[in-house]
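Work Package 3 (structural annotation) set out to generate three-dimensional models for the target panel prioritized at the project kickoff. During this period the team completed the workflow that converts sequence records into discrete structure tokens, so that structures can be stored uniformly alongside our sequence database. As a representative example, we reproduce one entry of 435 residues exactly as it appears in the project archive.
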Amino acid sequence: MEWWHVLLLFLGGLIAVLATGFPVAFSFLLVNSIGLYALMGTPGLFNMSVSIFSSLCSFTLIPVPLFILMGELMFHSGIADNAIKVIDMWLGRLPGRLSLVASLCGVIFAATSGSTMANTAMLGSILVPEMRKRGYSIAMSVGPILGVGGLAMLIPPSAMAVIMATVAQLSVSKILVAGVIPGLAIGVIICAYIILTAVFNPAAAPRFAAERIPLARKLAFAVRHLIPIAFIIFMVIGLILLGVATASEAAASGTVAAFLVALLERKASFQVVKRSLMGTTSVTVMVFMIIAAAKSFSSILAFTGATNGLFSFVERLNMAPMMVIVFMQIIVLFMGTFMESMSIILISIPVFLPIAARLGFDPIWFATLMLLNIEVGQITPPFGMLLFVMKGVTPPDVGLHEVILSAVPYIFITLAAMGLTMAFPAMALWLPSLV
């Protein structure tokens, strides 16, 4: 059987099973089991069970449940509410003030939560009703939150970045910090876009009288409510960059910091802890099942020669190496329109990353590009997950089609950040070089 027959059969079978609505983890396991039994018989299934065990006994996976727990604690305790008030105080009468509040809060919360859905749901439920009441258009209410909601995938703590590093067999710490500068670049571009839109179309974001607050009160409120969040961020990103802690240790220290802050804010009730632990358990089990299935999928590609066959095919194309990368990103962008993030990582990384490495590109840089691209998929119709999360938390007068239209400018903004990262690899590689 030719290598491309194997690749088409496995990928085609996997996409077909996923299209039926079958859970991602079980879809991978089903296709892998059938494929291995057909190729190797009973020994193939035994080897798959061994590879599943070894993939889940990896020390690099420790940050995943800890980052998820950290995000759950932040979400259920409501620590973020006062941070929103602080940012609102300091923005004064800037054009598009509430949209800017949403964007800046999204960047800050991305550094305290590893969940894009929790980030989007929290900002949407708190800010969209207020913006609509102030006369903001749907595009200026919903769009900025969709634009920054996915930054939790890029800026640590990011469970998805840990999964990317695990599947790609790369340094978890370097993958985590590689997304910081591209993520901040997206935040800056979004803020600039909001201000320009508010200036040239004032009806989309009407100005309203802001309460004049003394500087001393602003400083006191900022110290009281932003320093605890800054402490949580430092306990993750700061410790990794200083070389004091590994990714696993930083995940543990960040989780402890989040709990201590919730305790000091008197928001760490029994119900908050219970809901956080329940949410962490259910998400972690799902993620680990998918990772287990991904390991055997990578092994099948290597065993059948599909990976090497793909290498040879790419080399015979005589395309410029960067054009190969662009072509890969177009494929991933298309996959993002109908597949969720985890599936895209597990299908594409075992195939694309070895080719990128063979062409001489830095794997950390390529993995960061993939995370940026997958973030776009979260707000790309028709199946972008954050679109449905946003629809679920917005007032009834906001339709799904309006949510989708609101996301369009921010899709192009994220693609622009991807282009900058491709043109200037240091955006993704400078911070990892310091780790």
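The chain has one domain: 3-434.
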